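Late entry, evening session. Most of the bench is empty. Finally got around to the prediction I had been postponing all week. Sequence below, unchanged from the version circulated by S.P.
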Amino acid sequence: MMEEKEEKQAWDLPAQNDTASEESEFEDFGTRAFRRHIERKIARKKFIAGLLFGIFASLATVAGSLAALFGMNVIELSDKNKVRNNVMTDQVMEKLNNLIGTIGIYYYEDADVDSLVTGIYKGLFAGLNDPYSAYYTQEEYEEMMISTTANYYGIGAGLQQDKNTMQVKITKVYDNSPAQKAGLKEGDEIVEVGDIAATSTELEKLVTQIRGEEGTSVHLKVSREGENDYLEYDVVRANVKIPTVESKMLEGEIGYIQVSEFAQNTPKEFEAAIESLKADGMQAMIVDLRSNGGGLLTSCETMLDLILPEGTIVYTEDKYGNRQDLKSDAEHYMEMPMAVLINGNTASASEIFAGAVRDFEYGTLIGTRTFGKGIVQQVRQLADGSAYKLTVSRYFTPCGDNIHGTGIAPDIELEYEYLGDEEAGDYDEMKDNQIVRAIEELSRERK
């Protein structure tokens, strides 16, 4: 599940209502001239058709891909054609043709053809008004997929972007990472990356500017609470292999497992942590999902299968009512007291985890209400290396609760408070009030 807040699905896009303005002979000539200019550029790149044909054919291909996404039945095929016919009207095609011509005539520099075409594709998905659906160039797709391996050249910090303000904050600084060595801290707001304002672009694109070749540096301007001026850092990029699971034994034979995201290797790390803690005598377990923004649904499913007994752990429904159940089997499950820590940045796959534990009545949720992302995205790569991410369904907890926009309320509401000296910089789990409360609850259950 890709996440990375607030959605609006709109598959049946309305046709343009704008009436084409009168054109002069000069404008019409300019349109034709610019088209020939574009076709010559495309011919040099060994494309077969002209730009306009390529644009509209590609849009039709995207629409066809949506059909393949679900294995269209007759009703779904009708919906696909309705969307395509309403969007790609003669009026829209004529208007787009005129706009391209206007750019060719009046834009003060030579327009980059590839950028124009990419902009059309991106605009198609932007028209859904769904922040989770997007079109990616090949380079953007490859960068996005890096996050699923948790292995890259970068600074070793977890970032999160507010969907409304576009502000980017550091949610995690990994041990021995370039970010930690440079002095960056959790809670810092990234203001600029190089000369790019963080609020001017999507997080996935901003991350491509932070990552780079090993040994090179990236300049960051940071706002930190309590500081009057911006802080500036030159962080040297390194090969960062980020563990997504950390664990330790706490007092009272209670194992503590923190999961920072659901990446490809997370289930193996999670299972290894459980086995290690069991070998050390674990009798109860705390799973910390605070500020875990989600990740891969398949990883979450595998991890829940290690904990829960047989049954549906989550199910999805698309707009046609088609339901898909993901289930745990009876082969592996744990019978020990469990607490799951959650907060307002616990989202997506993390909410699936928490919701399943709650509905199976297998553990106690402690903390604050979760973020509330109850929709599923599917990522597909196209033949030319580009890709799209599309919201395709809603998900429901085992008891049928769709938490989109509302989140999951904890069983025990408790705002986070650190009981030690935060300025000292040494975090101690036993001074984290939510962990302390979890230990109290688990100790009570074991009596």
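Two things to note before I forget:
Residues 1-70 have pLDDT under 50 and may be disordered.
Residues 25-131 form one domain.
Will write this up properly tomorrow.
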